Amino acid sequence: MGFLLSRRWLGFFLAVAVLAVVAWRLGVWQFHRLDERRSENRTIVTNLAAAPLPADEVLPVGRALPEADEWRRVTITGRWDDRHTVVLKYQTRKENPGVDVVTPLVTSSGRAVVVDRGWMVTQNNGQERPRTPTATTGQVTVTGYARVDATGGAATVHDLQTRALSSLEIGRATGHRVYRGFVMLTDQAPTPAVHLRGPELPAINDGPHFFYGLQWWFFALLAVGGFCYLAWDELRQRRATRPSEERERAGAEVG
Q: Which sequence ranges are marked TM in the entry (predicted)?
């Protein structure tokens, strides 16, 4: 077994040890993600089942919507500012290209709630802003799901178009004081003349984290097992060649 202390085998051992530790830790991380996913799922299920609340009791002002309040149902009464309708680009559904139609709903306080009115089919080439259905005039009452704002460059609004929804960015582009977070419309009274397709609810499942975690742990065990096998095979070959070497030495001494 002294060969294990050679430079080649020590280097091999260190490489395998690093690989095994990294793979094991990645597996642990995936199982942590599984716990987080299950916690998020419990929050979503609770929020989806809860009775709607007035939007100003859920949507904050001056701070981000807490993730614990995402998918809470809210109700808002106000008037659509259709002149500042924003198009959310590149929203494909079942392989069909389309956009979401997003319009500020101005409440009696003067502050607006950013509302995703729904999805519509369009060529969605991103070059020309598509024509959107006119919002209902007069006062309306909307019910929908509260969502957390997107961040980053994709949320920037250009020519009343964006690739991700942020109430802050839409407020800047339209000049409205806004509640933080946005709302995905499910119901409106009075009923709109043109119905857009409603929101897609989140998938309530564990995702791939369990199997990814097992995969990483398998890779860790495979690395250790592979090293042990190669070390055993090296030892076996050395033992097999030892008798012939001894016979050759003995013959040389006799000669």
A: 210-232
